[in-house]
Design brief:
The longest helix is centred in the N-terminal third of the chain and has 16 residues. The protein has 12 helices and 12 strands. It is α/β, with parallel strands linked by helices.
Length: 380
């Protein structure tokens, strides 16, 4: 026969309604005082009963006898993810000793009171469990392209918004500067506006510059950040001079999504990487962009390169790793290699069976991935 605490704990674990991902607004002073009062309790059953009451309050704020929930969203409040705080309470309920319970209460108080961030992002590491949306694995299996806001898949060869979104959250702070030397239709700068980062994009083709401007304008600028677009050739551009004209001394993150050599021809411009006549020439042009942007990136900050491989005359060309080596010839270190699922491209859309036949007949495997190489610029 389960006692009351065991029964309620079982119901808490099994009740999916308690695990909905939503924010809870607490009255900061009242919540901290309540937790401090709980710390004075030395009876396990009694303290667990108090936390079971908190669970009921989270699901029905009208029963809030402590006054911890901020209904009006005014005053000194603490915002917490509901599912995360429920998991913290669950840990307390599962504890077998009063010492362990007191330890978890102190840890919960610390996560509510103290903000611990790094030099490269705004993530509060004392609340690291709340960042379920941030990927830390090296395999990214993304179901579909984010099409919310101003994002659209109309431009051939643009990359999915989730890539800059992930990197901007992890490797930049609000109001820092992000540079994309291969802007395309504007995906990176749209994400900059959404996340409160200033952005600079460089695009070779004038008509694509206009497309990017239109796309970026459609995204609401809720953080009042700056977005600058340059119609220029990143293989030749003096980035330091251009930034000086904009009163910018440096950038804090670089993201590059160059053409995958000649898979897609983007223009007739000979300096367009997609028009390189050999792989050596392609890598040379990419190297020019890496050199041109190196000095404007702050030391200890990061650069991401998004690139895929290709086939040529029945041979797999490891273009991604060739590009990785091109970056490593400069003074960068490799931090991570990420493999992103390449489920469906415009070139293979509605042709899965045909590509499966070709793979069986040709003895190869169908591309369903691309690489994201993450580098850091360190002082040697």
């Amino acid at each position: 026969m389960k006692n009351e605490i065991e029964l309620n704990l079982f119901e808490f674990n099994e009740n999916n309604d308690l695990k909905k991902n939503a924010s809870v607004y607490f009255n900061k002073e009242t919540l901290i005082k309540t937790l401090e009062n709980f710390e004075q309790i030395n009876n396990i059953d009694r303290i667990k009963k108090e936390f079971l009451d908190i669970i009921q309050i989270l699901n029905n704020p009208k029963e809030d006898r402590y006054g911890i929930i901020n209904i009006t969203n005014e005053g000194d409040i603490i915002t917490y993810d509901k599912s995360t705080i429920l998991n913290e309470i669950n840990t307390i309920l599962k504890s077998q000793t009063i010492e362990r319970i007191h330890y978890y209460i102190k840890r919960l108080k610390k996560s509510l009171l103290e903000i611990k961030t790094s030099k490269i992002n705004d993530l509060n590491l004392n609340q690291w469990k709340t960042y379920d949306n941030i990927i830390t694995d090296s395999l990214w299996l993304l179901e579909k392209r984010d099409s919310s806001g101003a994002h659209n898949a109309g431009y051939w060869g643009n990359f999915i918004p989730q890539i800059p979104n992930q990197f901007l959250q992890r490797y930049t702070k609000k109001n820092e500067w992000v540079l994309d030397p291969f802007l395309g239709s504007g995906t990176t700068l749209i994400e900059c506006k959404r996340l409160g980062r200033n952005g600079i994009g460089v695009e070779l083709q004038p008509e694509v510059v206009e497309l990017a401007k239109n796309n970026i304008t459609l995204e609401t600028n809720i953080f009042n950040v700056k977005t600058e677009i340059l119609n220029a050739d990143s293989t030749k551009l003096n980035f330091k001079d251009e930034l000086k004209k904009l009163n910018i001394s440096s950038v804090q993150f670089l993201i590059m999504h160059p053409p995958y050599w000649d898979i897609i021809k983007f223009s007739e411009n000979p300096n367009d990487l997609s028009n390189a006549d050999t792989i050596d020439n392609f890598l040379y042009l990419l190297g020019q962009v890496i050199d041109n942007t190196y000095d404007i990136l702050d030391y200890n900050r990061y650069m991401a390169l998004v690139i895929g491989d290709k086939y040529s005359k029945g041979e797999w060309i490891p273009l991604g790793f060739y590009c990785m080596q091109e970056v490593l010839k400069r003074e960068y270190i490799l931090k991570s290699i990420i493999v992103k699922n390449f489920e469906e491209t415009k070139g293979k859309m509605n042709q899965k069976e045909l590509w499966r036949y070709r793979a069986l007949a040709g003895g190869f495997y169908v591309f369903k991935h691309e690489y994201i190489f993450l580098f850091q610029k360190l002082k040697k």
